[in-house]
Amino acid sequence: MKTRLLNLHEVDKAAEIICAGGLVGIPTETVYGLGADGLNPMAVRSIFQAKGRPQDNPLILHIWSKDWLERYCDDIPETAFQLAEEFWPGPLTMILKCKRRSPEELMALKTGPISSLTHFGPRVIPDEVTAGLDTVGMRCPAHPLCRLLIRMVDCPIAAPSGNTSGRPSPTTVQHMLADMDGKIPAILDGGPCNVGVESTIIDLTGAEPQLLRPGGITLEQLQTVLGRVAVDPAVTRQMEKGESPRAPGMKYRHYAPKAPVTAVKGEPERGADYIWNHLSHTRWDGVICFEEFVSLFAGGEGPVLSLGSAADKGEQARRLFDALRAMDDTDVKRIWAQCPDDSGIGLAVSNRLNKAAGFHVVEV
Ligand code: AMP
Ligand code: MG
User: Fold this and answer.
1) CA 9 → CA 14, 181, 188, 237, 289, distances in Å?
2) Cβ(62) – ligand 1 distance below 6 Å
3) Whose CA is nearest to atom 9 of ligand 1?
4) Can you give the pTM of this predicted structure?
5) Ligand 1 pocket, 250 CB below 6 A?
6) What DSSP element (H or E) covers 5?
7) SS3 category, 85
8) Please, are residues 141 and 3 in contact by the beta-carbon 8 Å criterion?
9) Ligand 2 centre from 228 Cα, in Å?
10) What is the pLDDT of residues 122-148, one digit of tens each?
11) 86-111: per-residue pLDDT in tens?
């Protein structure tokens, strides 16, 4: 299959493909997604095939606005609307109860879009999206092309990150092509993603709100609306045997480059010192460091990549996945990476880096 790159004037072509049950690489403000008609079970199944994604890992539905929540969710708490008011459109996914339908309702529901060649069943969230859970992840993205696309198809777009399973999420159209060229009909080019890490996931179905994955909306921002927010242990440490995270995706070894990663956390000067003292100073060791320390490492033989300034965690989030992918294009045998502290979007950067490192973290 030839994969077409679509530009901003060709969103209608992307919409046509999705309405016909096909897959499109879609730009969002967080990372590129692999999108399909979220109410078409066959289309959703093909997402799992293209990514090589485990079947038990549910997808997020991307919707136009909070007004669509009641079409697909039940028992929506008031806090969901408050969060939507504050942070949507934006990088926040809410886990809510999936709508329950009686058999009569299912019979009465309209069938697939007229153009659909693959799906004539009722237009409800299929088990393929939720991996059989009674909850569903809902997000209203902010990227203008993604919003236009949702508007055109007029249905929720199911989309996980657009990477091959196990690779870092794509933050540019080039990353998306590297993983999906020849596997999907089209990718919509929306430029580089300006958040760079996946959405924050908050579970609103329990007794208290729980952060399942840190992302573009920070824990501190959530606390301003919700007060207390519990944090799933999978956010900050490796799960032990028999433990399972609330977001099934958090149990998989994600974001892992080929070479083992050591994440170095703590005061940036001390972290750079630590790396300098432990580095082999040969071409087999790669360094991902804050901009301030690039010149320190640049004289050596191994690759040195900048995450951006130590103080600019937003830039670190934008650059992290590109840096991990770039290291895969070298023949390094070890990667040393500086890691920010957990405040603000630092929690998301640190979480992704720790996962890339298999939680091999050194505190200096
Ligand atoms: P990705 O789009 O690749 O970032 O993957 C979506 C993430 O959302 C995965 O980590 C899923 O496990 C998580 N997710 C999606 N739906 C649910 C749900 N109903 N409950 C908990 N986690 C979910
Ligand atoms: Mg993913």
Assistant:
1) 10, 21, 10, 44, 38
2) no
3) 249
4) 0.95
5) yes
6) strand 4-6
7) helix
8) no
9) 27
10) 789 999 999 999 999 999 999 999 999
11) 999 999 999 999 998 888 888 777 66
